[in-house]
Amino acid sequence: MPETLIDASNLTVRYGARRALGPLNLTVQRGEFWGIVGPNGAGKSSLLHALAGLASRVDGRLQLCGQSVLGGRRSQALRQAVAVLFQHHDDVSEAPFTVADVVGFGRTACGVLGRRWNASDQGAVDRALEALGLSGFRARLYRELSGGERRKVQIARLLAQESELLLMDEPVAGLDMDWQERLTCLAGDLHLRHGKTVLFVTHDVANLPGCCTNVLLLNRGQTFGIGAPAEVLCSDTLSRLYGCPICVERRADRYVAFAKPGGAG
Amino acid sequence: MSAIEVFAPILAAAVLGGSSAGLLGVYVMGLRMPFLAVCTAHAALAGAILGQLAGLHPRAGAFAGALMGAAVLGFVLRHRNVDTNAALGSLFSLSLGVAFLGLGLQKGPKTPLLELMWGSLLFVTPQQLVGLAVAGALLVALSIVLEREMKVLLFDRLLAATLFAEAWVFTALLVLAAAIITFNLETTGGLLLYSLICNPAVVALKLARSFRSAMVLSSVLGAGSSVAGFLAAYMLDLPVGACIVLVSSLMVALALGFKQVRDRRHAG
Fold it and tell me: What pTM does this model have?
């Protein structure tokens, strides 16, 4: 596996005539944890969709795990190497899928269509369930879980896929503070304990785990700031990014940002 | 002719058609695209009517229509920014328009064409039985060979697209849906087929605690409602297709009532 997992230059994503992202340059090395931060409509999800191969009109140059991916079909090896957690977690199928089913879905990326389930697949699912403390949940129906539990199961699905690169699109959005904190810690664990390279999209810098190594600020599809968290996550930059006075505080290895009362125009 | 010789092919058609439609329904309802069934059924109906006008066998026209409907749907639904239900609704309207245009253009008695709308189990032919069996067996085979991929497809098509060549799996499902709908068109009819596909699946998806049991339950309920509907029609001297649909609708009502009682007991 190459050391550079994402190498994008002049990357542009369009939806119809509208340019949602770019031109954007981004290089992500193995073992990094990137926070992708920006207001609504900044192009964060478009970036993840382009990286996941889901955006239909993408221009520029994009290499993932050493393979050029624009204008061609993705190899199955590349599909396995990039795991995605989407934003629409609560749009749940009525079909009675168990937690073990959903975690096992990640294994469909590991080989050809119709491949037989083997001991290695079962082992990967068992390890993922164990790592997230979900072993006792394996027979529970996914549709009967709470929002936070579902996302935990989805994170286990990412682990079961045994990918190099994880793309997480607002994994904590819409959850209560307890679950936000739990899942933020889990995302950090994926990086620290499991050695994953992570792109973590969020509105709120407080959701970035302490292990975050790099931050990309996006605004209107363009790079607004890029660098280490200490360089980028400051009151002045975020105030300009969000268009209102924002105060950023560092608490231990994490950051907290809040709008100054009465500051918004 | 003995009673067995008369009833055996009818009951075989009821079991084969009902179970294959029930199994297909699990996928259609699991994909949250109930319109897929009604849309493909009406495309088949339009194809059968146009085929008959052109001097073809209605089944050939129905399969061509259903395949064309499935191909259009497959193409349109590949574009993820297209509203699925809007696309299905448009194709449904188009199919219905073409079907009624064909009816209007038919000179002389329209009875053979109108029969395609409600179908008839009573005059099932050996070829229809073979067609129903083959289409059903192919869907079972697809469900076994691509079990996990099909599950991901139902769970989240976007996720499926990141994990494997989802378009191939979806296309295979659409083609088999076209085949099953075609062979059921002559027995259940284009207007009533939707209920035979969706009703057993609604019950199975609500009651089952695993996907496999949902597939088995939906197939059994589909076959059961077809047989029970036929027997009710025979005993009460009523139209067969309508009785099948009424029995399957009654089954949905009973199942939902049962589920509510079960859930209340669990909660209590």
Answer: 0.89
